[in-house]
Design brief:
Number of helices: 2
Radius of gyration: 18 Å
Structural class: mainly beta
Number of strands: 16
CATH class: Mainly Beta
Number of domains: 1
Shape: globular
Helix content: 10-25%
Order of helices and strands: EEEHEEEEHEEEEEEEEE
CATH architecture: Clam
Length: 256
């Protein structure tokens, strides 16, 4: 289930935090497989990876709660969200650029009628943070992207290797078209690391980060900790207070 039937990926820099964007409404289920000298194997697909993260049970999720935290030179951001996927209602709590507390609650279907700070700052930040939370799902949902299985490759950070699933967005869409996300997938179909390559001239041009701190929140598998580099500078993005509500229950299920 994509966000209100359509997935919107953003690719630009908002409040100093990396985000990505391209719109699509259809799903895709197959990947392109590149020729390899190794023995033939079934091509890895975005759907396989998404299923590892709970795709088949995603329809049970009524609400997701989490706090997005980003730390790298010049940025120390923390934003708390509560999102209801089926109604696309967003509740936000954080601070504005001057450090003053800000709260907002809105339906994304009614975004055009919202105040300027919701349209120009809060909602772009929501999309950014949601993709860090659920990128394996969005890689599957975004039919505009081309997903290519490139086989075993050296990990960008540290030693070892993993299957490289490259997600490339088209040159004609989104805020910075032509972006590529290289997902390094382990034998358990979990993302171990990823590298972002920007298609345009905005910074950062390249981000490499780990996917670790895995926790289960109801039916969802979430990577809560990402450490790496953004254009050579230290980067740490982590998710805290992650919890979900599922159909038939009013209680939050904390990630653990």
């Amino acid at each position: 289930m994509a966000m209100t039937g359509c997935s919107t990926t953003i690719r630009f820099l908002v409040l100093g935090v990396l985000v990505f964007a391209a719109s699509s409404c259809a799903q895709k289920s197959a990947s392109v497989s590149e020729p390899s000298a190794s023995p033939p194997r079934a091509a890895l697909t975005a759907e396989q990876v998404a299923k590892t993260y709970g795709l088949d049970s995603y329809g049970q999720v009524e609400a997701i709660r989490y706090t997005f935290n980003a730390q790298f030179p010049g940025v120390n951001a923390s934003r708390s969200w509560e999102w209801e996927p089926k109604t696309n209602k967003v509740t936000y709590e954080g601070k504005d650029k001057d450090g003053k507390p800000v709260k907002a609650s809105y339906l994304r279907s009614e975004l055009a009628s919202q105040p300027a700070n919701v349209k120009d700052e809060i909602d772009p930040a929501f999309l950014n943070d949601n993709y860090w939370l659920l990128f394996p799902f969005h890689a599957y949902w975004d039919a505009s992207a081309t997903v290519t299985d490139k086989g075993q490759q050296q990990l960008p950070l540290g030693n070892g290797s993993a299957d490289l699933l490259s997600v490339k967005y088209p040159a004609g869409g989104g805020y910075t078209p032509g972006d590529t996300w290289d997902l390094y997938i382990g034998k358990d179909n979990r993302v171990e690391q990823f590298v972002y390559h920007r298609g345009g001239t905005k910074k950062p041009s390249e981000v490499s980060a780990t996917w670790e701190g895995y926790k289960k929140a109801g039916p969802l598998l979430i990577s809560t900790d990402h450490k790496g580099k953004a254009d050579g500078n230290p980067l740490h993005i982590f998710l805290s207070d992650v919890a979900v509500k599922v159909t038939g229950s009013a209680d939050w299920i904390n990630a653990q």
